[in-house]
Amino acid sequence: MTYESVKADYLKADAELNKVYQDTLARLSPPEREELKGYQRAWTKLREDRTGEMQDGIGKWNDRASFTKERIDFLKAYSTAEGAYPPPGYTPAETERDETDAPKGDLLIKNYNGYFVNYAGQHILTHQTWVVSRKNPSQHHRLPVYRDQSGEDLNSRCTEMSHYISADQKWILRRQVNDVFETGSAYLFRARAVLSLKRQPSSPSTILRGTFSPDVLRTARRIKV
Fold first, then answer.
1. What percent of the chain has pLDDT over 90?
2. Which of 41, 132, 186, 209 has the most Cβ atoms closer than 10 angstroms to its Cβ?
3. List of residues 6+ apart from 107 with CB closer than 8 A
4. What is the pLDDT of residues 132-181, one digit of tens each?
5. CA 14, 74, 35, 142: dihedral to nearest 10 degrees?
6. Exposure string (b/e) for 124-157, b if CB count within 10 Å is 16 or more?
7. Reported pTM
8. In angstroms, how far is the first alpha carbon of the chain from the final one?
9. Torsions phi, psi of 216, nearest 5?
10. Of 139, 133, 87, which is closest to residue 113 (Cα–Cα)?
11. How far is CA 170 from the centre of its chain?
12. Contact yes or no for 131/163 (Cβ under 8 A)
């Protein structure tokens, strides 16, 4: 490994990143495009903050190349809330993350697993959860993920995921185990208006009392609305 080869590897990865980024923007709606642009600006600053002050040498360019390749993988797997359904290339999930407990109402929870090939040629598992109308399956919406400022999915590392739909069909609760915040956290979505997701450090609000069973709320130690 030489200085020249490592720097050339970074330049090659950076050129591919620009292409993948433009391809990703092209398949997004205008609002989603602006959102990704913001994520990409934050990521670019993060890369510069991480490597900009390093001494010009093999270590610096190797680090920049690795960081850039990880971003290529992120963009290849980037998906939106209103993509095609069922998601192309995905299959119904058959893992413990597919555990669902919902009453018989109009809304259904549908989980899908898919794979993409990362920069190193490895097949990486991705997951999508959708809310679908029983009466009219053309009415569907993907539950959003919680992202950091650069767009990275902070929920992807959880080892178990369960979904609960309230009896009045107005709320969807997602319970997670071992996510990046804590063991036993949860997310709350208002049905048919699930585009925004904000962290809420408090305990479940009074609106949930009587909406979900006490057992469900006990397992959701922290609600993020």
1. 23
2. 186
3. 131, 132, 133, 134, 165, 169, 172, 191
4. 888 888 888 888 777 778 888 766 666 677 787 877 777 777 776 655 55
5. 160
6. eebbbbbbbeeeeeeebbbbbbbeeebbbbebee
7. 0.69
8. 49
9. -65, -45
10. 87
11. 23
12. no
- Residue boundaries of the structural domains of the chain: 3-77, 91-224
Tokens coding 49: 């903050």
- Which pair of structure tokens corresponds to residue 221? 């130690």
Q: What confidence tens digit (pLDDT) does each residue in 1-46 have? A: 899 999 999 999 999 999 999 999 998 888 889 989 999 999 999 9
Q: What is the DSSP string of 102-154?
A: --SSSEEEEEEEEEEE-TTS-EEEEEEEEEEESS-TT-EEEPPPPB-TT--BT
Distance CA 179, CA 188 (A): 15
Structure tokens at 151: 């767009």
Q: Are 131 and 141 in contact (CB under 8 A)?
A: yes
Residue 114: closest CA among 136, 135, 95: 95
Query: From CA 151, how far away is CA 140, in angstroms rounded?
Result: 23
**Quick one: which of 79, 102, 74, 104 has its CA closest to 90?**
79
Residue from 113, 209, 216 nearest 173 by CA: 216
State which amino acid sits at residue 143: L
